[in-house]
Amino acid sequence: MDMIFFDNIDKLGRIVLTSVMVYVLIVLVTKVSGKRSTSQLNNFDWVVTVMIGSLGASTILLKDVPFIEGVSSILVLYLLQFLVTKYASVSPQFSNFILSEPRIVFYQGQFLPDAMRSERLTRQEIECAMRSQGINSFDDVEAVVFESDAKLTIIPKPTDDTHSKENTISQTIKPLM
Questions:
Q1: Which of 2, 9, 12, 30 has the greatest CB tally within 10 Å of its CB?
Q2: pLDDT per residue over 131-176, tens digit each?
Q3: Strand 152-156's sheet: what is its strand order?
Q4: What is the pTM of this model?
Q5: Residue 36 — pLDDT band, cuts 50, 70, 90?
Q6: Rounded CA gap, 52 and 82, in Å?
Q7: What is the 3-state secondary structure (H, E, C) of 46-111?
């Protein structure tokens, strides 16, 4: 019961020093690896991020995990993430395999129950996304797309005076149908 608040000064010193070193490592490697490491995460990026957090915590708290081993495992994950995302950017088949496809969940005034059920989305979540975009009427929405990063994209209906928008909207929705 005596180790609840404090064990010993050596252990505390190791944790503090390792915390600083792991923090600096993760900040630097994240900066070098680019925006993808901190942007809206798709499932693949989220898993890698959780793993890096777990490895960082293990390196900091477990005395049986030497700093170099923890650093090596974190760097390997960043390298794997880089290689996988690089390959996905040049191979549509591989990209489709590791990333989920965007899906239309609302189209031309109609909720699409099969798509919503498959994606485990509720009407309230879609309505919330519409409200957050300042849209107050279903009539103002052409489509709602559930993106690979789990974000809901609201595509407004084109207005009569913006015929160029009409072509853009159909081009973005058509591949999803």
A1: 30
A2: 999 998 999 999 999 988 788 999 998 876 555 544 555 566 766 7
A3: 110-111, 103-107, 141-146, 152-156
A4: 0.65
A5: low
A6: 14
A7: HHHHHHHHHHHHHHHHCCCCCHHHHHHHHHHHHHHHHHHHHHHHHCHHHHHHHCCCCEEEEECCEE
